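Incident review: delayed structure delivery

Summary: a single-chain prediction request sat in the queue longer than the usual turnaround. Root cause was a stuck worker, restarted by the on-call engineer. No data loss occurred. The affected request and its eventual output are reproduced below so the record is complete for anyone auditing the incident later.

Affected input:
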Amino acid sequence: MLVINSTLKVRDGTVIGIFALTMVSVFALPVAASDWRLALDAATVSLSINPQNPNTVFAGGIGRRVYRSYDAGINWDTLVVNFKGGNSWFTNIIVHSRDTNVVLVGGTNFGSLQRSTDGGESWAKVLTPQLPLRLNGESLVADPSDPDVMYVGHLRPAIIYKSRNGGIVWDSIATIHDVANLCTICIRNDSTNVLLAGCTEGKIRKSTDGGHSWRPCRVQLPQGYEGLEIPKIIFSDADPMLGYAVVTYFSRAREPDGGLYQTRDGGESWRQIAHRGISLWSVAAHSEGDRDNIIVGGFSKDRHTPGRGIVYSLGTVDKGWQEESKQLPWNIDADNNVWMLKISPLSAGKRRLYLASPAGLLIRALKPDSRGIGPTRFGVVDTR
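Output delivered after worker restart:
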């Protein structure tokens, strides 16, 4: 379950934490911290990139604020949803991939899902359940083959809502009864009927009928502990049977848990492949040929649980995973949690890596490297 510190603020002119990472296997990036740019000096917890124009980026903030950039994060507009203030966290924001004027936003301490048809200038409620809507991890998703089909996963009870007209009208289609909380939803790339749900108690559930029914998946971690959750699931662009999930935990007593999990059978079974004992919240990947480029970010609600301020990148086969955290000048007084990671679509031969954190929104350019070699690459995973 997402633990929110509603008193968290990024003071004007004060950067809570800045950090650097190494690079993707096919994108050459020096280790130097200067390659990262603090694009937005305000706490951000979610991201969405316009798929038709990757220079347009939306970031979900705190206090009913949404931030919008038309130039890849150089300049930002602050958009207010209804009114400014409060302790709402916009943990989910999504841009319609066909009609990019349509943007939807939701989160925690907000209660509803709201929709804009003018790029965020104005907003209207489209989903207001009897119980205030609460979106934990990334739980607002769109069908990659038909963007008018969207899903929302309510935290508790674990209700699945579906829209067939671009988020205008929503229907409750299912409740996952055997889980305490629903944390994230993911649509598998090869079949729009196949959805995965990450939940508390270390559970993953799978639907093969467009979200109407759900069944358990096999996860090799302790079950039945509510302080353990799966906040993010993604699948490889190169192989739809290959997926990744991160596991978060909230007590030092659960330290053997956490880490990065992998499936090679489309989500039926999951096993830990890295970062045992580390509490992770975010993961992003991009496929290049038959390899996946992966980066993960940590989370913890206290200083005793390993995860706070941690960023890992996967090096070459002979180098393995590299911890970049020791190079990062985190502020020891800040939460330093990595709420979301996104890699932009390829545009004009370039990609960008975006990171949402209490320090604000950070951006790094990913420069092509056709050689695909060198010790400062991350994310080499052979998908064969």
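Verification: The mean pLDDT is 82.
Action items: add queue-age alerting; document worker restart procedure.
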